[in-house]
Write a structure and sequence with these properties.
Blueprint: H1 16-26, E1 31-34, H2 41-53, E2 59-62, H3 66-80, E3 84-88, H4 90-107, E4 111-117, H5 133-136, E5 153-155, H6 162-174, E6 180-186, H7 187-191, H8 213-225, E7 229-233, H9 242-253, E8 257-259, E9 274-276, E10 288-292, E11 310-315, E12 332-335, H10 338-349, H11 354-372, H12 387-397, E13 403-407, E14 423-425, H13 435-448, E15 456-461, H14 462-467, H15 470-479, E16 485-490, H16 495-504, H17 509-512, H18 527-532, E17 537-541, H19 547-559, E18 564-569
Parallel strand pairs: 1-2, 1-3, 3-4, 4-6, 5-6, 7-8, 7-10, 8-9, 10-11, 11-12, 13-14, 13-15, 15-16, 16-18, 17-18
Helix pairs in contact: 1-2, 1-6, 3-4, 3-13, 8-10, 9-10, 12-19
Family: Belongs to the TPP enzyme family.
GO molecular function: acetolactate synthase activity; flavin adenine dinucleotide binding; magnesium ion binding; thiamine pyrophosphate binding
EC number: 2.2.1.6
């Protein structure tokens, strides 16, 4: 019998993959969404080794497509407000990541997007090339294909720096303005031993500067002098407390708010100052426009404020410097977090004095009249099964605590959202295939917190559903016990393609065929059957009358741990 000490899993030498994963967890990462390949052996070994020892690593999720992995990390980061990680397979996996990276960078969401790198060496080292594919998958610059879609990219060059590089990546991802970063990890380096006492970095606390008080004072004076100031926002409600802060400000001063292409609940949708969701007919009387966390406050080819109306912009990057062309002429652009700016502006404005009270009251009456002209759920024609009718029923029937991710088709102007975390809109980049994955990431974040009674719903067009790689999504829902509801607005067409064609050529040759050329998605498959094939509940609904019962049955299925899908066969 040997006298040598027994080697246990916990006593095995530390490798770079151990250091990397431990550091991610210590840095605040909760989840790793993995699309594994031949570059993952050391990551897999680290997880298997850590299990019995009780070391806390990011929760691993097996994901069968890169687009889904990034979307799940994106939804998870939206929910937790912390960077989460997606890891994919070398160059080809990175290629499939690019669309999700574009969504994240335009949405300002912190993610650590990582990929293995095909082995650097051809022989002689642990982790060297052992498959024919290792030659063809190498690139001269793997990070180059994703570089424009991330804030920072790097390739690990020393095994002992795996922890330092992980912290560096997380710090940059979460530093304002937040966004995705990319890290490639060569297979040999992940497998190399590193000293157990390698120095460990901790996260940097990045303190965000306050808005310029002089600029805030100037804006406050403009608001006091304006007859009809208007705030346009798409994402000021993303920060905790942002919705309540904006509500307090606009209620005190009777400032109407347009939530254009809303991606969060910036103001309760039924708030007296919420006048609508499209500036096209709502800017005509404005003599001051404040664009708050809004990359496109209006579309100049469609509508414009009065020529004499000043435009002020507020955001962490108010010029959206990563957009190649953006020509909104702002009188001033304030660099600040939306929440800090709102609070500073409210403090500078104070309460309306006697000389302003009459103007504020008159403006409130005008806003009430504008709100009265908005579309109401009560006026929707439920005899025709349109996207509008379906949205009205869904808004009425879904529980108030539901979380909705909208990939285009749900009519948010008919919703009742009144607080943060109830709604996440489609990203400005428009990379289809986002909604189901984001909903699953939100469900994963909730499940880790023990929240199981908050239904998560993805609203999707039929084209968007196909882009989501639905088999991969339904599999992940079942495999990770993340029940969610998918609602498909099935009009058998690419609505955006058709509408754009008809708008540009209303009397053209394409209009003769109703703009359906290259937009026709018929015949529609049995979408409900795809969900049922993964153990879920799936129904096809053909009328608004039948929709409430289908919603109730879907909610019952989800409460029992099943995913659900409702296929709405609506009019075009």
């Amino acid at each position: 019998m040997s006298d040598a000490p027994e080697t246990t899993l916990a006593s095995r030498p530390q490798i770079a993959a151990d250091l990397y994963l431990k550091t991610l967890s210590e840095g605040g990462v909760d989840a790793l969404y993995a699309v594994a390949g031949t570059d993952f052996p050391s990551v897999i070994e680290s997880y298997e080794k850590a299990g019995p020892s009780g070391i806390d690593l990011p929760r691993p999720y097996t994901v069968p497509h890169e687009n889904l992995a990034v979307a799940m990390a994106h939804g998870d980061a939206l929910r937790t407000r912390r960077a989460q990680v997606a890891m994919v397979h070398v160059s080809v996996g990175t290629a499939n990541m690019v669309c999700g990276a574009l969504n994240a960078v335009r949405d300002g969401v912190p993610l650590l997007l990582s990929a293995g790198r095909t082995p650097l060496t051809e022989e002689g080292e642990h982790g060297t090339r052992t498959r024919f594919i290792h030659w063809a998958q190498e690139m001269f610059d793997q990070g180059g294909m994703i570089r424009e879609a991330v804030k920072w990219d790097y390739e690990l060059r020393s095994a002992s720096q795996a922890g330092d590089v992980a912290i560096r990546a997380l710090d940059i991802a979460e530093a304002p303005p937040p966004g995705p970063v990319y890290l490639s990890l060569p297979r040999e380096l992940l497998a190399r031993e590193v000293p157990p006492d390698v120095p460990r970095r901790v996260r940097s606390r990045v303190t965000e500067g306050l808005p310029d008080p002089d600029a805030i004072d100037r804006l406050a004076e403009r608001i006091k002098a304006a007859e009809y100031p208007v705030i346009i926002t798409s994402n000021s409600g993303r920060e905790a407390g942002g919705c309540a802060a904006l509500a307090a400000l606009v209620e005190a001063w009777a400032i109407p708010v347009i939530q254009f292409n809303a991606r969060s609940v910036n103001l309760p949708f039924e708030h007296p100052m919420c006048i609508g969701f499209d500036p096209q007919s709502l800017l005509l009387g404005a003599d001051l426009v404040v664009s708050l966390a809004c990359d496109v406050p209006f579309v100049p080819a469609v509508t414009n404020p009065r020529p004499t109306a000043e435009l002020w912009e507020i955001d962490r990057d108010p010029l959206f410097s990563r957009y190649p062309l953006r020509s909104f002429g702002a009188a001033e652009a304030l660099v600040a977090s939306p929440l800090a700016a709102i609070r500073a502006l409210h403090a500078a404005l104070g309460s309306p004095g006697a000389d302003q009270a009459r103007r504020v009251a008159a403006r409130a009456a005008k806003i009430e009249a504008v709100r009265a002209r908005r579309t109401s759920r009560d006026t929707v024609d439920l005899n025709r099964f349109t996207a509008e009718a379906a949205s009205a029923v869904l808004a009425e029937r879904l529980p108030r605590e539901s979380v909705i991710v909208n990939e285009y088709s749900f009519r948010t102007d008919l919703a009742k959202f009144d607080g943060e975390g109830q709604f996440y809109g489609f990203t400005p980049a428009g990379g289809l295939g986002f909604g189901m994955g984001a909903a699953l990431g939100i469900a994963a974040a909730d499940a880790r917190e023990g929240v199981r009674d908050r239904p998560v719903v993805a609203m999707l067009g039929d084209g968007a559903y196909m882009f989501n790689n639905p088999v991969a999504c339904h599999w992940a829902s079942a495999a990770h016990q993340l029940p969610m509801l998918s609602v498909i607005f099935n009009n058998r067409r690419w609505g955006a393609v058709r509408n754009s064609t008809l708008a540009m050529y209303p009397q053209g040759a394409a209009a003769a065929s109703d703009g359906m050329f290259l937009a026709d998605l018929s015949p529609a498959p049995d979408y409900a059957a795809i969900c049922r094939a993964h153990g879920g509940s799936g129904e096809t609904v053909n009328s608004a009358r039948d929709l409430p019962g289908a919603i109730d049955r879907a909610l019952t299925a989800m409460a029992g741990g099943q995913q659900a899908l409702i296929d709405l066969v609506i009019e075009g």
